[in-house]
Each structure stands twice: as structure tokens, then as C-alpha cells.
Write a structure and sequence with these properties.
single chain, alpha/beta, TIM Barrel, Double Stranded RNA Binding Domain, 3 domains, eight-stranded parallel beta barrel, 18 helices, 13 strands, 40% helix, 15% strand, elongated
Length: 508
């Protein structure tokens, strides 16, 4: 591992929360901050205390959270034009946040100075210098975010560099170059950084947005060019197309470039961190996310799997366990007999690749997938299919009759009523249930009908339709997925529902 020290600056709580669809409470932000601290994140940007009461509430709350490793940063702007820095209410709010680190952004692009701030280029330089000098006089660590630096460098390189020189003279601890619009290309980033290093002698950082899908690439290029601080967010959450994804940058630097970022034990927590933050943000983890996505190390093609069994390096660029993920072999008509054999082993059932049973299972999968079934994400359905083909599955109940109707549609208060009749252990059980939706009503009625015969039914709950547990501190629960196919959506849902309960009874 190279000894080069890289610091990571997480802005999920500020820049990440500006993503469409994300709304974090003060408590949510504290939970994420505690998890980032546990991971060992060097800096956590908490928000902009001058912009809204919720962010100031977070800064008060996080002081009681007992963070041990991370430094919390408050974020804000340079002083307003033609205003004394000590009289600026936004600067006062930054001090009131009570953090040891303050990040201030200033304008690097002359277009923004004249058209947004509506002031002179000279006054903007004074705004940068005086704000940083004032904060440094308060014994605060100051990170200067050179907003729109790469666009400003293209338009007027001399002025963009001059803004950095004023920040450095004022005593900024780090000059972070921002690709705020996300339009820079990797070679442009490297060229600009080399010019900056000749113009100033302060430590440099990088802050990239992903509008050209190059935020990770640009951040890695910046580190190669000499930047020692990387800003980004967990899962790349952020405004518009998102920010640089720390979940990808960290393993790229450590596992690919040999730069020690975190201990190997902490790197193994990366997948858990990624999923935890997604849960708090009430967003599903992205299956195809590199390194930590559920599909990142999932293998489906038969040729791939055959090679993987012989040598895992054939189709994996890093070991999944290095980032806390795991390898998966998917069952489908594309995978062939090898997939089935491997999946059966995972279920503690040994099959021979060319046995009649394996061939029969593959034929059944191909038939069902032709009808529309997909087993790669419905492993409970796959296990029951194997048990049925092998003759090991004993039906626990049979469905005698079902019906469901929905009333009051259109008036804002629809209701669904389901009636279910089942035969369990020789006895008929008839129950009905009323719920908001037809599937929920069928689920309630079926479980009521089976509860007396199989009390274990009370332990399971339907979590369909993208319902997720947001309170990640409540603990983990055993979940499983089944699939049902029919041209009628209610019939398809019923098939999956019955199979889910059969799976629970089968597993005990």
C-alpha cells in the first residue's frame, strides 16, 4: 500500500440531501453521521446552518452523539458583497454551529461574480480573503470550496487561479476544486490541477458532480494529480445527476491504486454502509451499483459460471468479501445445469450435473421462464420448485375457493374484501378480511384461515410493493421472495402469496 494519505469528506447530509426524493430529518442525519463515524469517515459535512432551522438543530444534536473519529463541518458561503464579515448573519450562523471545521464556498468563475453576485471581480477576491482570514482568526479549520472552478478555469484561468491564491494567503487549510456543473472531462481536470499546483502551495481537494457520469473518474484523476482530500456522498446521492460516489472511489483507490484509505476491516463494512444510508434515505439500494450492489458479483451466464468455478478471477475484478459483499450464482434458462447444481448446494441439496433430476429441473425452469417466471430474484420459489421435482415437497394445504372484490373506487376510500376457503389437515377453514387493497385482503384472509392449524403463520408479514423498513436500528428480519405469473395481476399476486406461505411452512 502506498503511504500517500487521502482524506475523505462526506457531504451526504448536505449535498446528498439535495437529491430529488430525499428528505432527511435531523434524527435521520444524526443516525447517518454516527454510522459514518463508525466507518471512520474523516469529515462529515452536516449542512448549512444559515439556510434552515433543521440544519442548526442537527449541529446541536450531533454534539451529543459522541462521534469519535469524524470531524463535523458546517457549510456556508463567503461574506456578502460590500458587507463587513463580522456583521454578516450567515457567517455568524457558521460560528454558532460550533464546529471545529467550516467549509466556505466562493466564486471562481467570473461569470458568476458578475451575473449572480452582481459585484466586481476585485470585491469577490476580498470576500474570499476576508471570510477565510476571519474564520482562521477564530482558530477554525477552514476548507475552501472553489465553486465552479473548472468552468472558471476554462473561461478565465488567470482569475480562477487568483481566487485560489487569495484563499491560500488567508490561511485556508485546503483548497477544494469543484466541478459544480459536472461537465469537466478527466484530462481537463488533470491539466487544471497541474496549473494550480504551480500557482499555489496549499493542500488541494476535489469535489465533483456526476452530470457527465465522470464524477468518480474525475475524482480518481484528481488524486493522481495530487489532491489529498476527496469530497463526495454515499451512493453518489446528490442534486441533479448526483455527486462523486465515495462507495466506488474508496475501493478504487485502495484496491486498484494501492493507496491505503481505511483498514481492510473497515473496507469490509462498505456494503453495509451503502445499504444503511439508502435505507435511511428511504431509497432502495441500487442492485447494479459497483462494489456494493446486489448484482455487483452476480453471475448468470453458464459460460461465466463454469469459468468462475475454476477460477474466480476470470469474471471478478476484486474479491466481493473485500468490500463486504458476496458472490451470487443466478438461476435462469441461460445458466444451464451448472447454476442449478451450485444453487442446490447452497440449499444443502447435492445434485450431479448430468443427473436426470438436474436435467428435469432445468427443463422445468426453462418452461416456466418461457411463461414469464423469473427465478433469479425469487429464490424461495426456486427452492420449492426443486423440492417438488425431487418429490420431497408435501403440500400443507389446498385452496378450495377464493374471491376478492374492491368497492368504493373513485371516492378516495376504496376497500377490498377477500373470502378464502382452504383445506388443512382434513378440515375446511373459511375466513374473510377487509383491507385497503386486494392483495393485502387476500393475505389477511389466507393467514386467518391457516392460523389455527399452523400458528407459525402469525410470524410472517407481507412486505410486497416496495415496502421497506426505514428504521435500520430495529434489527434484521428473515425475508424471502416468491414469484407468480398470470395475465391477471390479482391471480399472479395470489400465486406468489400462496407460495410464500408454503415456503415458510416448509422451512418450519
Amino acid at each position: 500500500m502506498k503511504k500517500k494519505k487521502i482524506l475523505f469528506y462526506d457531504t451526504t447530509l448536505r449535498d446528498g440531501s439535495q437529491a430529488e426524493g430525499i428528505s432527511l430529518s435531523s434524527n435521520d442525519k444524526v443516525l447517518i453521521a454516527k454510522r459514518l463515524d463508525q466507518f471512520g469517515m474523516h469529515y462529515i459535512e452536516g449542512g448549512w446552518p444559515g439556510s434552515n432551522p433543521k440544519d442548526m438543530e442537527f449541529f446541536l444534536a450531533v454534539k451529543k452523539a459522541g462521534l469519535r473519529r469524524s470531524r463535523v463541518a458546517a457549510f456556508g458561503s463567503t461574506r456578502r458583497a460590500h458587507t463587513k464579515v463580522q456583521s454578516d448573519p450567515q457567517i455568524k450562523a457558521l460560528l454558532d454551529a460550533g464546529t471545529r471545521v467550516v467549509t466556505v464556498f466562493g466564486k471562481s468563475w467570473d461569470l458568476h461574480v458578475t451575473d449572480v453576485f452582481r459585484t466586481s471581480l476585485k470585491e469577490n477576491l476580498l470576500m474570499i480573503y476576508e471570510t477565510i482570514a476571519y474564520l482562521k482568526d477564530k482558530k477554525i479549520e477552514v476548507i475552501y470550496d472553489a465553486e465552479h472552478f473548472f468552468d472558471g478555469f476554462k473561461a478565465n484561468p488567470e482569475y480562477a487561479l487568483k481566487t485560489l491564491q487569495h484563499a491560500a494567503r488567508a490561511g485556508a487549510d485546503n483548497l477544494t476544486l469543484c466541478d459544480t456543473n459536472g461537465g469537466a472531462l478527466p484530462h481537463e481536470v488533470r491539466h487544471a490541477i497541474l496549473r494550480v499546483k504551480r500557482a499555489v502551495r496549499a493542500p488541494l481537494g476535489i469535489h465533483c458532480h456526476n452530470d457527465s457520469e465522470l464524477a468518480v473518474a474525475n475524482s480518481i484523476q484528481a488524486v493522481g494529480g495530487g489532491c489529498v482530500l476527496v469530497q463526495g456522498t454515499v451512493n453518489g446521492f446528490g442534486e441533479r445527476c448526483g455527486n462523486a460516489n465515495l462507495i466506488s472511489i474508496i475501493p478504487d483507490l485502495q484496491l486498484k491504486m494501492g493507496i491505503r484509505c481505511f483498514t481492510p476491516a473497515k473496507l469490509k463494512e462498505l456494503t453495509a454502509l451503502s445499504h444503511y444510508v439508502a435505507e435511511i434515505c428511504n431509497l432502495p439500494p441500487m442492485n447494479n451499483q459497483p462494489f456494493t450492489g446486489r448484482s455487483a458479483f452476480a453471475h448468470k451466464g453458464g459460460v461465466h459460471i463454469n469459468a468462475m468455478i475454476k477460477n474466480a478471477k476470470t469474471y471478478e475484478h476484486v474479491r466481493p468479501d473485500a468490500v463486504g459483499n458476496y458472490r451470487r450464482y443466478l438461476v435462469s434458462e441461460l445458466g444451464g445445469k451448472t447454476n442449478i447444481m451450485i444453487k442446490a448446494l447452497e440449499l444443502e441439496m447435492e445434485l450431479q450435473k448430468d443427473s436426470p433430476e438436474t436435467k428435469k429441473i432445468l427443463a422445468e425452469i426453462q418452461r416456466l421462464e418461457y411463461e414469464g417466471y423469473q427465478f433469479e430474484a425469487a429464490e424461495a420459489s426456486f427452492e420449492l420448485l426443486v423440492q417438488r421435482v425431487l418429490g420431497r415437497f408435501k403440500p400443507f394445504f389446498t385452496v378450495n375457493d377464493i374471491s376478492v372484490r374492491t368497492e368504493n373506487i373513485g371516492n378516495g376510500r376504496p376497500r377490498s374484501i377477500a373470502n378464502v376457503s382452504v383445506i388443512a389437515k382434513g378440515a375446511e377453514h373459511v375466513e374473510s378480511a377487509e383491507e385497503d387493497g386486494p392483495v393485502n385482503a387476500l393475505d389477511s384472509a389466507l393467514r386467518k384461515a391457516l392460523a389455527k392449524t399452523y400458528p407459525v403463520i402469525s410470524e410472517i408479514h407481507l412486505t410486497d410493493y416496495k415496502v421497506r423498513v426505514v428504521n435500520s436500528e430495529a434489527g434484521t428480519r428473515k425475508t424471502w421472495t416468491t414469484v407468480g405469473v398470470h395475465e391477471n395481476i390479482i391471480e399472479a399476486s395470489w400465486k406468489a402469496l400462496v407460495e410464500a406461505i408454503e415456503y415458510k411452512l416448509h422451512k418450519g
